[in-house]
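Issue 218. Parser rejects a valid record. Input:
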Amino acid sequence: MPNRDARHHSLDDAEDQLLDAMRTSDVDTLDALIADELEFTLPDGSTIGKQADLDSHRSGATRFERITEVSRRTVESDGSGTTETVVDAVILWAGERIETSLTYARLWQKVDGHWQVISGSATPHSGR
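Output the parser choked on:
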C-alpha cells in the first residue's frame, strides 16, 4: 500500500506531478514539489539549488519539448522514498536542442505533510 501524504498523494503521484510540471515549466507546481534545500546534480556534474532550477524554467532557459517515461522504480519507507525514472527527452537548454535519454534519481521526503524532492540527479541513460 503506497504511503500517502496529507493530500492523499502517493510518491508515484508526486513523481507524475513533477514530470508534468517539468513538461510545461509550471513554476508554481515545481515550487511546491521541490524542497527549499534541494541539491540537484545535472548531467554535466554541476549542482543547482531550488531557486536556480525555478529561475531556469521561469526564464525559458530550460524548456522540455518532450519527456516520455520509459521506466520507473519507486521505493518508499515511512516519510521518505526514492524514485528512479528513465525518460526519453527533448530539452531546449541555453538555446540548444538536445535529444537524450536520462535517468532521474530523486530522494523524496514528506515536508510539512507533502512529498518534496530534497536531492537528486539527472544522468545520461545508457542501459538501452
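Fixed in the parser; the record now loads. The chain has a mean pLDDT of 92.
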